[in-house]
Design brief:
Length: 93
């Protein structure tokens, strides 16, 4: 029951600027979720309508935000940022 991973265009720039070791850890975590979609928790609450259904995972001090589309069987990474800035940035969008 593996899902595919299709990054959102907004994800590519911040992800490419990360150190290679951190990128590797994030990819491993997303691949684990794609192969075990039952471990994806509930979506985040209190988000604007355009971000409804957004999920988050923690990779060290970093947060990866993504959508899980269970009908298309895919994970769509949306953004990655340090914990201290990630939630502030989500509120601004």
């Amino acid at each position: 029951m593996a899902y595919s991973i299709r990054p959102h265009h907004a994800f590519e720039r911040p992800f490419s600027r990360l150190p290679s070791e951190l990128r590797k850890r994030i990819v491993e975590k997303l691949e684990f979720l794609a192969s075990h979609p039952e471990t994806i928790g509930p979506p985040m609450k209190h988000l604007s309508a355009d971000l409804r259904g957004l999920h988050k995972i923690r990779v060290g001090d970093w947060r990866v935000f993504f959508w899980a589309d269970h009908t298309k069987r895919e994970i769509v990474p949306y953004d990655v940022d340090r914990r201290d800035m990630a939630y502030k940035k989500l509120r601004k969008t």
